[in-house]
Amino acid sequence: MTQLPTPRAKRLQRPSWRERRLVVGVLLVLLSATLGAKAVASADDRTAHFVAARNLVAGDLISATDLRRVDVRLDAVGTGYLRADRGAPSGSYAVRDVRSGELVPASAIGTAAQAGVQRLTVRVDAVSATGLAQGTVVDVFLSEKPAAAGPGERRRASKALSAVGVAAVLPRSSGLGSNTTTSVQLYVPSQQVQMLVEAVDADAKVTLVPVVGALAPPVP
To answer: Which CATH architecture has domain 47-112?
Structure first.
């Protein structure tokens, strides 16, 4: 009886580095790793800066609650903004206006002397103070009493100050008769304080008119 030949088992060969599928797979892995590294590096380009948490007007004393940290990616032009990695500049003052939500320029923060303003409280008609709040910018009009007023002669108003920041609006108080007045604290340029004080002492009427397009209190 004839014996059938015994089949021999073939040994599995190790895959070669030259095989196309293996080379393509390695290239895809390398490409993915490179793209991932670039994405991470791009994210790391972001830097911490401060934005205004509320409207800031020249003369405001800056506290930590007035600034909010954000991580942003800026080009070379961003070097002029206030960095947050050095901490909030507590004890500093706003030397110019910054809107709520805007990046804070480093040049907008300085000393009280650089701000060049002083707080001055004036009493105004309640209607004149309607809608005013911290951060509002107003023009100041004075209606001075004529030296020798004739019968029926009215006061003439003139603009005394332009674009003055409101520091605070104090609670209303009842004045003489049925008139209701409100006290408003203004940031008055230092060189104009004496003029405004003398006008108020001379019984001039103060009227505040919000500046169109200037800072306004945020909508709640």
So the answer is: Alpha-Beta Complex (3.90)
